[in-house]
Amino acid sequence: QKTKMAAPSASGPNVCASIIGVLVEYDTPKIVHVKSIKIGILNRLIQLAIIAYVIGYVIVYSKGYQLDDTAIGVATTKLKGVDFTNASESSPSRIWDVADYVIPPLMNGAFFMMTNMVVTPDQTNSQCAEDPSMHDVICESDSDCPEGVAVVSGNGIRTGRCVAYNSTLDTCEIHAWCPVEYDVLPSTNEPALAKTANFTLLIKNHIEFPLFGVTRRNILDSPDSDYLKGCRYNSRDPVDKYCPIFVIGDIVEQATGQPYNDISVVGGVIKIKIDWSCDLDHSLDQCTPSYSFVREDDPDARIGIGNNFRFSDKWMEAGVMHRSLTKAYGITFVIVITGTGGKFDVIPLMTNIASGFALLIIASVACDFVMMYLHKQRKYFKKKKFLDIDEDVISKVGYASAEVSNEFDHSSEKRRIIP
Fold it and tell me: If the chain, 419 residues long, is cut into consecutive pieces of 10 residues, what is the mean pLDDT of each piece?
């Protein structure tokens, strides 16, 4: 709603006069009272909707009266469990404890638990036939095996000789750790360390909201000093949902919704998320963690599926270096800590209230649009919304005459109500 005051007419070309007129024009708001039932109701409904949104959603539901701080936290883990594997062609029977299947022992914010393996025992530095599954190693003569050329993604360096791999197949001889690895899992249905599903994981998590000087930990105080010895995490139990000891099989089932063997045979990656969403206006006893589990790798990938790496154990025997090579398949557990703490503060409350008042202008914009473009009396509204005042006209007819005319227009319009 604007009132325009035009500049005095200038002599000279019309273009120059127009430019000068634009430069010296001044717009000032003009208040027009529109007595229309429909537009008035529309205006109040939009205002009520905006007020309900600001109070109900922004301030109450989203806690717009609080100042937020992001949690800073650390977590440590301790895995417990023992498994036993029977003797096979590649390895003797043995016991596996946490020092054997958690590799490496320390990782930043994560840990790897071995569930399956391919073991190549007692390798030495020598010459032997390359694995025929490698690229470009099957040969018919020595000329097919150029000396000193490494096998692409293979196990060693060609010696220049073509030797027998078995009774029916010849491959290039290589300098390598021999015998070369036979990279085939003993079983595709069950992992070698199947009992890892029953292992337990203790997570110790400490967080801080530095802005408010509040610290919390996930091991909650309990009147029973032996509570941790027997509790196990259970998301459906009102007490045990805060237990920091987890069964590996339960974590996998909640993360994947599938049997444990589906991931433990070839491995995978699981994220353990610890979330702290705390209303610090209430007791700190209500500031508790919640846990969720998600599988991060793609179980349906056609290539590169699973999670594995190789490591070796070396020893000297009769002056010769020996090693046992293990291709370890397993699950990498990644721990992610998130959290937000909120506490009452006047500044965010006033900011949200002020933003809500600013939104009320939407009601005026919407009503103006309806009034000037959709209403059946839109031409009349447009005519009354804008008033042009020419200083030359006032100077010629006098201020009093213009004022009388203006008063007459207003007095007549006050009696007109548009439905």
Answer: 46 68 72 82 93 94 93 93 78 83 84 93 94 92 94 93 93 95 86 93 95 93 80 92 95 93 94 96 93 93 90 92 94 96 94 91 89 83 74 58 50 47
Determine contact, residues 198/247, Cβ cutoff 8 Å.
yes
Distance in angstroms (rounded) separating the CA atoms of residues 353 and 347: 10
Q: What is the largest CA-CA distance in the chain?
A: 123
Contact 113, 310 (CB under 8 A): no
Host H or E run for residue 275: strand 268-279
Ramachandran angles phi, psi of 328, nearest 5°: -95, 125
CA distances from 273 to 79, 110, 292, 333, 398 (A): 17, 12, 5, 10, 79
CA gap 224, 231 in Å, rounded: 11
Instruction: Give just the sign of the alpha carbon dihedral 321, 327, 331, 337.
Output: positive
Strands 200-209 and 170-178: unpaired
Cα–Cα distance, 201 to 195 (Å, whole number): 14
- The pair phi, psi for residue 250, each rounded to 5°, is -70, -40
Structure tokens, 355: 């933003």
Q: Are 312 and 286 in contact, with CB atoms under 8 Å apart?
A: no
In which residue are the tokens 């007459």 written? 408
Is residue 278 within 8 Å of residue 341, measured between CB atoms? yes
CA distances in angstroms from 178 to 90, 92, 148, 151, 321, listed in the order given: 14, 19, 17, 15, 12
pTM (2 d.p.): 0.76
Residues 394, 400, 404, 406, CA torsion sign: positive
398 φ/ψ sector (left φ>0, alpha ψ -120 to 50, else beta): left
| Strand order, beta sheet including 2-6 | 26-29, 2-6, 387-390
Closest alpha carbon to 156 in 182, 178, 132: 178
CA 51 to chain CA centroid, Å, is 32
Alpha-carbon gap, residue 244 to 291, rounded angstroms: 10
What is the enclosing helix (H) or strand (E) of 327?
strand 320-344
